[in-house]
Amino acid sequence: KKRRGRSIYLLSVPVKVGDPAKDGAQIDARIVCVRNHSNRKDWIALICTDMTIDENEIIRIYGKRWDIEVFFKTCKSFLKLGTEYHGL
């Protein structure tokens, strides 16, 4: 259970994603809101379509993915690669 002041996340809400008027298909998802560590007044919303994963696991996986994205962006900038690269 979520404990005030002790929880890693602010809010976790199950939602349905999709346009029922367009194709009638909707996907179950969970939105998890967490505080931004660089600005405590700000928050970040994460969305996950795997409903079996708990909130702490979603935050952990997102953190690892974010580290990878930052690494790729740094490498791309350091190597002065454009938006696309073809090599032989």
Explain how this protein is built:
With 88 residues, the chain is α+β, with helices and mostly antiparallel strands. The chain has one domain. The chain contains one helix and three strands. It has a three-stranded antiparallel β-sheet, covered by helices on one side. A hairpin with a 7-residue loop joins β2 and β3. The termini are far apart. The model has no long low-confidence stretch (mean pLDDT 81).
What features would you highlight for this structure?
alpha+beta, 88 residues, 3-stranded antiparallel sheet, 27% helix
Q: Mean of the pLDDT scores?
A: 81
Q: What is the distance, rounded to the nearest whole angstrom, between the alpha carbons of the first and last residues?
A: 54 Å
Structural class: alpha+beta
How many beta-strand segments?
A: 3
- Work out the radius of gyration: 18 Å
Q: Share of helix among residues?
A: 25-40%
Strand arrangement in the largest pleated sheet: 1-2-3
Query: Quick one: biggest sheet?
Result: 3 strands, antiparallel
Low-confidence stretches: none
General form: extended
The figure for the number of domains is 1
**SSE string, helices as H and strands as E:** EEEH
% residues in beta strands: 25-35%
Number of helices: 1
